[in-house]
Amino acid sequence: MKIISWNVNGIRAAVKKEFFNEFKELDADIFCIQETKAQDDQVAEALSPIDGYSLHTNHAVKKGYSGVSTLSRQPVISNSVNLGIEEHDQEGRVVTTEYDDFILVNVYVPNSGSGLKRLDYRAEWDAVFAKYLSDLRKKKPIIVTGDFNVAHEAIDLARPKSNYNKTSGYTQTEIDGMDGLLAVGLKDSFRELNPDKVQYTFWSVRFGARAKNVGWRLDYFLVDERLMDRIEDSFILDQIMGSDHCPIGLILK
Which of 31, 132, 168, 221 pairs as cysteine with 189 (C-beta 3.0–4.6 A)? Predict the structure, then answer.
């Protein structure tokens, strides 16, 4: 089974580029999208050329902001959206789909913002999300994928020293938040398979960052430790353009 995850930075913009060609070529069983920046009906319209997949969407109350969608060629037993807490459910950040032997959570974790103005909110969100995942694991093993808006370790960004505790995505608060997610019984699949590999999933649109590969690894497949023996590959598709993020993939036996 192949699962792909991609922050597309606006689905309506993405489909005007090479999205459909990439989608077809990647041939995923499940395709998770973050930052759709569109309401559910707009996402459905944008993705209407795709056949053979069920579509599960979640949008923000604020238009043109956030949003996640999961396309599934695999039969979905059940699906749900959000975390069940009003304050956090305004932003359309979670879609959960259940399959025969695991539950998949597609997430777009809040960014701490310029000047770290949302850092306190982000810390609160991480704690709530960790509890949500912990409760979900009691039912079935889980896989959590998406844009986590944090570089977990120094190897996960090009310039760790100059960004530490100064830049959104690499503060100790956010690192601790990721530690809390892993502590519920999850493994960072890419890092488990590639302990020393330097590869990024996000590049700022400024200063020619992508051409220079001054990047960050912000997108992850966190896999339940009970499923780790089923992982065949966990990879980053950094040659694929079309967004400030690139897709990532997971292959399960």
Answer: 221
